[in-house]
UniProtKB/TrEMBL annotation:
<feature type="transmembrane region" description="Helical">
    <location>
        <begin position="20"/>
        <end position="39"/>
    </location>
</feature>
<dbReference type="GO" id="GO:0007267">
    <property type="term" value="P:cell-cell signaling"/>
</dbReference>
<feature type="transmembrane region" description="Helical">
    <location>
        <begin position="185"/>
        <end position="203"/>
    </location>
</feature>
<keyword id="KW-0965">Cell junction</keyword>
<keyword id="KW-1003">Cell membrane</keyword>
<dbReference type="InterPro" id="IPR019570">
    <property type="entry name" value="Connexin_CCC"/>
</dbReference>
<comment type="subunit">
    <text>A connexon is composed of a hexamer of connexins.</text>
</comment>
<keyword id="KW-0812">Transmembrane</keyword>
<dbReference type="InterPro" id="IPR038359">
    <property type="entry name" value="Connexin_N_sf"/>
</dbReference>
<feature type="transmembrane region" description="Helical">
    <location>
        <begin position="128"/>
        <end position="150"/>
    </location>
</feature>
<dbReference type="GO" id="GO:0005922">
    <property type="term" value="C:connexin complex"/>
</dbReference>
<keyword id="KW-0472">Membrane</keyword>
<protein>
    <recommendedName>
        <fullName>Gap junction protein</fullName>
    </recommendedName>
</protein>
<keyword id="KW-1133">Transmembrane helix</keyword>
<dbReference type="InterPro" id="IPR000500">
    <property type="entry name" value="Connexin"/>
</dbReference>
<comment type="function">
    <text>One gap junction consists of a cluster of closely packed pairs of transmembrane channels, the connexons, through which materials of low MW diffuse from one cell to a neighboring cell.</text>
</comment>
<keyword id="KW-0303">Gap junction</keyword>
């Protein structure tokens, strides 16, 4: 990953954000992205390998794992992080479009040039709507993923033992999840930070209005 390019990107997002937006970005970067990269990926790296069932029936473990883990936590979080940060890039692109339009008009008009946008980064007109819709979209994405996690993993927690009776399992078998306590702690941490990010997005939208 090109960290210098990523740093420049964050600098651009910060430049056109309100105070609430800067706090939101810090939470995303420190408490969600870094936790995901540094710790969460390692916690879930062995989820299939160490998913044990008290049977040797071929295919039973794979079927049971797929039933209880339809989508991996780690992949859902990755998709959530991608979707929740995209709207901020749209704001930067809108500002870049304004600046390019201003530059093009300046070159075409010469001495008779008049500003279209005195400050291209100022949240007025179309940029105001882009910024507001980006906040609503970010809050909406986080809410949708909270619901998805709740549907897949009731109460956002994993049990130590699950019972599976799906074919081709010969009978009801006990399956044991790897490191359920550690995974529950990370899951609840991500849920709490997501709720805080939703609250900040809604507060920022109210402040903007």
């Amino acid at each position: 990953m090109n960290w210098s390019a990523f740093r420049d990107l964050l600098k651009g997002v910060n430049e056109y954000s309100t105070a609430f937006g800067r706090i939101w970005l810090s939470l995303i970067f420190i408490f969600r992205l870094l936790v995901y990269v540094v710790a969460a990926e390692r916690v879930w790296s062995d989820d299939h390998k160490d998913f044990d069932c008290n049977t040797e029936q071929p295919g039973c473990i794979n079927v049971c794992f797929d039933h209880f883990f339809p989508v991996s936590h780690i992949r859902l979080w990755a998709l959530q992080l991608i979707l929740v940060t995209c709207p901020s890039l749209l704001v930067i692109m809108h500002v870049a479009y304004r600046e390019a339009k201003e530059q093009k008009l300046r070159e075409a008009s010469g001495d008779s040039y008049r500003h279209i946008y005195t400050n291209p980064g100022k949240k007025r007109g179309g940029l105001w709507w882009t910024y507001l819709l980006s906040l609503i979209f970010k809050a909406g994405v986080d809410m949708v993923f909270l619901y998805i996690f709740y549907r897949f993993y009731r109460n956002y927690t994993l049990p130590r033992v699950v019972k599976c009776e799906l074919l081709p399992c010969p009978n009801v078998v006990d399956c044991f999840i790897s490191r359920p306590t550690e995974k529950n702690i990370f899951t609840l941490f991500m849920v709490v930070t997501t709720c805080i990010c939703i609250m900040l997005s809604l507060i920022e939208a109210s402040y903007l209005v």
